[in-house]
Amino acid sequence: MKLLLANPNTTQAVTDRMAEVARVAASRGTEIVAVTGQVGAPYIATRAEAAVAARETMELMANHAPGCDAAIVAAFADPGLGGAKELLDIQVVGLAEAAMLMACMLGRRFSIVTFATARGPWYREAVEYHLLTSRLASIRCLDAPFQDIAHVRAELEALLVQLCVRVVREDEADVIILGGGPLAGLAGRVKHLVPVPLVDCVAAAVRQAEALVALAPRKASERTFRRRAAKPITGVSPALARLFGRE
């Protein structure tokens, strides 16, 4: 099995971190193909940055998904997920999508904890997109400076653990999702310090992508993710133009 891990931000170190976690989570024999965006922000924190990232997601999918069995949008809040599901023949999973669905299996109400305050409104819209608002206990964003997005996990680890403990007590969350690719791997490191399950979004996405490939369901393409009539599109890579040109 071959899974595409497509990170639409431009920080290679974040991709490397996610790829490391993905390979640990993956089953024996699963190959992880990790690619990084070339256009956009070093990390995605706002709606505007997410809009640029959605375009980059489509480019990464078009150019690297051929030969893969499933693909993962490797940015929390899933920029470009719906479009990728429309255009690709393989199953596509988002980090936020996978994490929230996993959290719903572990408890009734989940909270999302992340490291940048700007992410709050965008993350809430991602929850609404997936129709899971009724299961959301809270979105908590750590208001603390950090030096390097590639090392934010280590820089803010203690503060993030403290925030998770507060969320359990104050928001009555049954499960906590650590939101954001730069936090990949943190859940496993600190799970003994938080009294509820922690969900690692990268590990959840890998396992759910593997399950979809193994189950081989028909793609949900007749309504929500239906491919529309072919039309020409300009200013994109030849690979992406070909996807838009297919009936």
Main traits of this protein?
about 250 residues; alpha/beta; Rossmann fold; 2 domains; about 45% helix; globular
Account of the 3D structure:
This protein is α/β, with parallel strands linked by helices and 247 residues long. Helices cover 44% and strands 15% of the residues. The chain has a four-stranded parallel β-sheet, with helices on both faces. It has a four-stranded parallel β-sheet with strand order 6-5-7-8, sandwiched between helices. Helix 1 (12-25) packs across helix 9 (201-215). The longest helix has 18 residues, at 47-64. The relative contact order is 0.17. The model has no long low-confidence stretch (mean pLDDT 94).
Task: Outline the fold blueprint.
Blueprint: E1 2-7, H1 12-25, E2 31-36, H2 47-64, E3 70-73, H3 81-87, E4 91-94, H4 95-106, E5 110-114, H5 119-129, E6 136-141, H6 152-155, H7 157-171, E7 175-178, H8 186-190, E8 198-200, H9 201-215, H10 238-245
Parallel strand pairs: 1-2, 1-3, 3-4, 5-6, 5-7, 7-8
What is the share of helical residues? 40-55%
SSE sequence, one letter per element: EHEHEHEHEHEHHEHEHH
Query: What would CATH call the architecture of the largest domain?
Result: 3-Layer(aba) Sandwich
CATH topology of the largest domain: Rossmann fold
How far is it from the N-terminal to the C-terminal residue, by CA? 27 Å
CATH class of the largest domain: Alpha Beta
Q: What integer value in Å does the Rg equal?
A: 17 Å
User: Helix count?
Assistant: 10
Low-confidence stretches: none
Q: What kind of oligomer do you see?
A: single chain
How many individual domains?
2
Quote the average pLDDT. 94
